Amino acid sequence: MESQLVTKRVLGIVEDERDMQLLLRLTLGADPRLDLGGEATSAEEALELAQSWEPDLIVLDQSLDGELTGLEAAPLLKALVPETKILLFTAYDLRARAEAEPAVDDFLRKDNFAALLPTVNRMLGLEPLT
Q1: Which of 49, 58, 102, 114 has its C-alpha lying 20 to 30 A from 70's C-alpha?
Q2: How far apart are CA 58 and CA 5, in angstroms?
Q3: Is 58 exposed, middle or buried (0-12, 13-18, 19+ CB in 10 A)?
Q4: Into how many domains does the chain fold?
Q5: Does some domain include residue 3?
Q6: pTM of the predicted model, to two decimals?
Q7: Domain, as residue range, for 39
């Protein structure tokens, strides 16, 4: 019997709402190919931790605890971990602003939560789970 090694993709979650953090953990944790590298409730905390997380992708909220918004933090995070994909995941309709920010790789509104896991998988080049 041949064993298949699965390389887990590391995610970072930057979200200040506790209930949404839990929902993100449960949803993304349902995919065995994804590993939660770390969580932060503010952009400042994410900036401190991003290099130790070594994330393949960061799910980044717009409104956070602290001084910086998600859009303000995205280029700073990208400077620290340039290979990391950034998904701006917010309740606000900021698609145009997100598309204008080169550090943001994709945008998803929270009211389209069902698209979260497929979006993350697509961004990471993973096939949908069957």
Answers
A1: 114
A2: 24
A3: buried
A4: 1
A5: no
A6: 0.92
A7: 9-123
